[in-house]
Amino acid sequence: MSTNDTYSGIAALSICEALLLALNDAKILPEREIIGILQDAAASHENAAEPADADADAEMHGAVAKLINRIISGGNSVRRPQ
Fold first, then answer.
1. Which residues contact residue 25 at a Cβ distance below 8 angstroms, ignoring those fewer than 6 apart?
2. Which helix (H) or strand (E) holds 4?
3. Which residue of 2, 5, 62, 78 is surrounded by the most CB atoms within 10 Å?
4. pLDDT at 4
5. Is 47 within a domain?
6. Can you tell me the distance from the alpha carbon of 16 to that of 81, in angstroms, rounded to the nearest whole number?
7. Which residues make Cβ contacts (< 8 Å) with residue 42, sequence separation at least 6?
8. How many CB atoms lie within 10 A of CB 54?
9. Residue 12 domain boundaries
10. Domain-embedded: residue 79
11. Structural domain includes residue 23
């Protein structure tokens, strides 16, 4: 993956996280809905990572699913009381 692709991906992730936080802060989406969106995204990548031949795409999808699940665990996309 090129450096430009990496930077684009990081920027996209930051923008999406900011949007999820804004939607929660504005009480448009509750935390459970935001977590559900993230779980759906992770599941899509988990399913795409299942082909028997471990090609680069399957590896990438698996890594993306793990990253999304870490975001869910870390609470990055919702403001949780400390």
1. 79
2. helix 3-25
3. 78
4. 82
5. yes
6. 21
7. 65, 68, 69, 72
8. 10
9. 3-74
10. no
11. yes
Global pTM value: 0.80
Q: Please report whether residue 43 resides in a domain.
A: yes
Q: Can you tell me the distance from the alpha carbon of 66 to that of 59, in angstroms, rounded to the nearest whole number?
A: 11
User: CB of 59 within 8 A of CB of 45?
Assistant: no
Question: What are the tens digits of pLDDT across the range 27-48?
Answer: 999 999 999 999 999 999 999 8
Residue 7 tokens read as: 């930077």
- Please state the separation of Cα 7 from the chain's center in Å: 16
Count of structural domains, the chain: 1
Identity of the residue numbered 82: Q
For 4, other C-beta atoms within 10 Å of its C-beta total: 8
